[in-house]
Amino acid sequence: MDLLAIAAQTLLAVIAVIVLARVNGLRSFSKMASFDFALTVAAGSVLATMMTSAKTPWPGLVALATLFAARFVISLLRQKWQPLARLTDNAPLMLFYEGELFEQNLAMARVTQDEVRAKLREANAISPGCVRAVVMEATGDVSVLHGETLDLSLLDGVSWGHAKAPGSNSGA
User: Fold this and answer.
1) Which of 30, 55, 69, 107 is 20 to 30 A from 138, comparing alpha carbons?
2) Average pLDDT of the chain, as a whole number
3) pTM, 2 dp
4) Over the stretch 104-119, which tens digit does the pLDDT of each residue have?
């Protein structure tokens, strides 16, 4: 493949991504759910192949359009039919709550105490006492909730794994 062809296919790929992102909307590159992240990674792989090794751009363009269409359809269906959301997403997992680090949940998520401490520092938590909760989100991101109080509604849908949820007699 000559350099001019690589440049032309790269330009075409950039234009295609811009057009598809505009048509698909704000969710195009989000990481709001685990399926979003997976489709973003897949799109990146298609783009790389299309720009550097494909003889023709058309299979890559079709694959890219299909990935964007799949994201649109899945997100729309998830919004309308809750069982699909449960099928496509992992549940967020509670790692730390009100001063207690949940060792078994760390093991479930394959997260170390050092990684949790790093996330606390990143969130500007000045002591574990000011941290209300640490949640490993479905996307793999870690949310650190800190401050004076915590509205428990923010924890709706969070799995407590092997930990005891507040107000329950067993792990949720």
Assistant:
1) 69
2) 88
3) 0.72
4) 999 999 999 999 999 9
